[in-house]
Amino acid sequence: MRYSYAPLLASLASTSLAAETVLGVYIFSRHGDRTAKSTPPANLTALGLEEVFTSGTYYRNRYIASDSSHHIHGMNTDMVKQSQITASAPSDTVLQNSAQGFLQGLYPPTGENVQGDTLRNGTVVQTPLNGIQFIPLQTVSTGANSENSAWLQGSTNCANAQISSNNYFASPEYLTMLNRTQDFYNGVSPMVNRTFTASQTSFKNAYTIFDLLNVASIHNSSDNFPHADLLTNETFFQLRTLADQHEWGLAYNESEPIRAVTGSIIASQVVQALNGTITGKGKNKFNIQFGAYAGMMSYFGLANLTSVNPDFYGVPDYTSSLVWELVTNATVGSSASEFPAVEDISVRFLFHNGTTSNISEPVEYPLFGTGQSPLPWTDFVNGMNKFSIGTQKDWCHACGNSTGVCSPEVLGESTPSTTSSSNSSSSGSGSGGISKAVAGVIGAMVTLAVIFGAELLVLLVGGYRLVSKKRLSRTAAMGPNGAGLSTAEAPKA
């Protein structure tokens, strides 16, 4: 995204020593620049592909290249070794294409100088496309079509999480902002009234209105952007601030952690993957998952990152990335028997807002309000386990789901389980944890009862997405009436 809001500039002095070795990493990344959510289907743009490729190239230079600054111990530098890397994305065009673009930056084509295959008849077959390298992409259903969904919580299939997010629309905070900002949105209406009706042009649709105008400000010519003069810097800032506040309210609530269920599942996946690096003595070293920003925001709240920097309340830009590094200061040998002991391993968390590059690198932050980074492995796991959801049964109970994979028969329960309260959470490090694939199965198979009634109808018609609130907003500017920004269609239910 070319438009950025107050980048996260806080720095944290590293406590690592010169001899530190990176044993493995887990990266969770947002997609690159795309078309607007209010005109589905959303598609990755050429700019978006460039962004994820640039980010992939940066992480290659950080972790993989022979002269990388934080080379992962034993990681192949030029030719990809499939057992060392795991890549995944939901069944979503924008996210899957972003993942593929990132992976091409991570392991670029090897060139024609690589030896080809010599057939029995003597024919030599070279790898096409200048030696392009293909990395398998695991497909999961959790978050399927999330970039075509205005309300990202709808892709979680977690009943209690959806109910919790719905509670936001009855909160004094939301109702106050809805009333206070109506004059501001009336002023914005001329730019969006071909997509949003007068009743839809309000704080109720704060994110999708911002998203439409953000895309237009990047891609639309003046002929296709009526009343572009109304989108002043002050108005754009206000649109983004209101979108941040709206989305944070949907993504996280301290008294109802189940609202952040996506962040809970991400936490479990990170622990399981890094634990696999340890138990496998470094066999799998690099994990990259692409997902929607809702999961990022949920994790920010759960991990108490907002106490470190208030900018974590904000919606992450395109291609933003969360990174967990598995590091050690112990001596690491070439054999599995020389792999460091658990007590000698720590985890460092880093975040970058927007496209990562050599001139804009990730920043280190302490997790869980500890003020310490990196964290010893045991402390890291204990901190993550306080809110992670790591088994199918725990997910079903926390979400209050009781059909499909959550039926008593499937869970091995003689009677239907009691619906957990909305603040349920459970450990993610135990056996039988939700892998990305299992989480996808849950998302695909669970059938929800009709619980939401009129509130859900309002959400779907209005068009919502999960994310943040960033800074407290102030109401602003009005503008003249006129023809609105031309788009393909109004938000779908």
Structural write-up:
The chain is an alpha/beta fold and 493 residues long. It has a domain at 21-108 and 135-149 and 260-385: Phosphoglycerate mutase-like (Rossmann fold), CATH 3.40.50.1240. 34% of the residues lie in helices and 10% in strands. It has 15 helices and ten strands. It has helices at residues 46-63, 93-106, 128-131, 159-167, 172-180, 182-192, 206-219, 233-251, 261-279, 293-302, 377-385, 392-399, 408-411, 436-445, 453-462; strands spanning 21-29, 85-90, 117-118, 124-125, 137-140, 286-290, 321-328, 345-352, 363-365, 375-376. The strands form two sheets. Strands 1, 2, 5, 6, 7, 8, 9 and 10 form an eight-stranded mixed sheet that branches. The protein has a two-stranded antiparallel sheet with strand order 3-4. β3 (117-118) and β4 form a beta hairpin. α7 packs across α8 (233-251). The longest helix is centred in the middle third of the chain and has 19 residues, at 233-251. It is globular. The relative contact order is 0.20. The model is unreliable at 1-18, 416-435 and 437-493 (pLDDT under 50). This is Acid phosphatase. InterPro entries: His_Pase_clade-2, His_PPase_superfam, Histidine_acid_phosphatase. One of its GO terms (molecular function) is phosphatase activity.
Q: Looking at this structure, what is the CATH superfamily of the domain at 21-108 and 135-149 and 260-385?
A: Phosphoglycerate mutase-like
Rg: 23 Å
End-to-end C-alpha gap: 27 Å
Number of helices: 15
Low-confidence stretches: 1-18, 416-435, 437-493
Q: Largest sheet, if any?
A: 8 strands, mixed
Order of helices and strands: EHEHEEHEHHHHHHEHEEEEHHHHH
The CATH class of the domain at 21-108 and 135-149 and 260-385 is identified as Alpha Beta
CATH T-level fold name of the domain at 21-108 and 135-149 and 260-385: Rossmann fold
Secondary structure category: alpha/beta
- β-strand amount: 5-15%
Fraction of residues in helices? 25-40%
Number of DSSP E strands: 10
Overall 3D geometry? globular
CATH architecture of the domain at 21-108 and 135-149 and 260-385: 3-Layer(aba) Sandwich
Overall mean pLDDT stands at 81
GO molecular function, one term: phosphatase activity
Organism: Capronia coronata CBS 617.96
InterPro entries: His_Pase_clade-2 (IPR000560), His_PPase_superfam (IPR029033), Histidine_acid_phosphatase (IPR050645)
Keywords: Membrane, Transmembrane, Transmembrane helix
